[in-house]
């Protein structure tokens, strides 16, 4: 079900004061490396998002990182595959319609919120099962003015709908029962995009969900300022039996 109206402790504008504690140069340089900065809007929105995570993370346990690690391993990591996602979006759209993307198990909104900030033309649905995270996501939608974001409080196992692109970072390793639901919410001509680490590990995990996908490509991804290996697994759902 969709989350209800936001209530305290999240007054609008609360997080602006925390921006001063965020490494703005690191974020700006990372966005520039990803060819994402033009008018400053993306930078400013992500600064406020980072400030909000830093403010509430100690109490609510939103992510397991802070400071520069939060910027690199969560914000820039979320945005690093964007060029690949743009190409997928071009493949699923036959008209001028908007891309419909769902981020499953989004947690604090990763990668969904950075993607929604960077691509206003994407309609992004954030799905998570925990009420406190849903309240945080509602606050971020209001704080950042994300009119292209919808929020759903639900378990991934009960997710519904049909989306052009299905993303997630949270599922490690691939698990067959869960992925049956993941593929069920992907449109027949859509794509499931899994954020992963090492390519060889991702390849070994694909065996667990063999038969659920019609095709699978492992694409390398470069995250600015991160030496660790990253990739995405892009999958198309197998033809569904009627």
Compose a concise summary of this entry.
The protein is built from 8 helices and 7 strands, in the order H-H-H-H-E-H-E-H-E-E-H-E-H-E-E. The protein is of the alpha/beta class and 242 residues long.
Helicity range of the residues?
Answer: 25-40%
Q: Which radius of gyration do the C-alpha atoms yield?
A: 17 Å
Total E-strand runs: 7
Number of domain units: 2
How many H/I helical runs? 8
Structure in words:
Helix 2 packs antiparallel against helix 6. It is built from 8 helices and 7 strands; from the N terminus they run H-H-H-H-E-H-E-H-E-E-H-E-H-E-E. It has helices at residues 24-33, 41-60, 67-79, 82-92, 112-118, 131-144, 176-184, 199-206, and strands at residues 99-104, 122-128, 149-153, 163-168, 186-196, 213-221, 230-237. The model is unreliable at 1-12 (pLDDT under 50). Helix content is 38%, strand content 21%. It folds into 2 domains: 14-76, no CATH class; 81-237, Rossmann fold (3-Layer(aba) Sandwich). 43% of the residues are buried. A 7-stranded mixed beta sheet has the order 3-2-1-4-5-7-6, sandwiched between helices. It is globular. By secondary structure, it is an alpha/beta fold.
């Amino acid at each position: 079900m969709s989350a209800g109206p936001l209530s305290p402790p999240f007054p609008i504008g609360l997080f602006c004061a925390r921006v001063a504690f965020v490494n703005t140069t690191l974020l700006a340089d990372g966005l520039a490396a990803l060819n994402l900065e033009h008018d400053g809007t993306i930078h400013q929105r992500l600064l406020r998002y980072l400030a909000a995570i830093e403010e509430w993370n100690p109490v609510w346990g939103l992510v397991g990182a802070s400071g520069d690690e939060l910027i690199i391993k969560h914000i820039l990591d979320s945005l690093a595959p964007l060029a690949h996602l743009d190409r997928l979006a071009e493949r699923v759209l036959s008209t001028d319609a908007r891309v419909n993307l769902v981020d499953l198990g989004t947690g604090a909104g990763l990668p969904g919120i950075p993607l929604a900030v960077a691509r206003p033309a994407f309609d992004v649905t954030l799905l998570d099962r925990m009420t406190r995270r849903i309240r945080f996501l509602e606050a971020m939608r209001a704080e950042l003015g994300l009119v292209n974001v919808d929020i759903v409080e639900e378990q991934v196992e009960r997710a519904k709908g049909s989306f052009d692109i299905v993303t997630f970072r949270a599922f490690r390793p691939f698990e067959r029962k869960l992925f049956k639901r993941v593929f069920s919410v992907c449109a027949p001509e859509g794509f499931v995009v899994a954020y992963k680490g090492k390519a060889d590990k991702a390849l070994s995990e694909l065996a667990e969900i063999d038969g659920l996908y019609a095709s699978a490509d492992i694409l390398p991804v470069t995250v600015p300022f991160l030496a660790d290996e990253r990739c995405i697994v892009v999958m198309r759902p197998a033809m569904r039996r009627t």
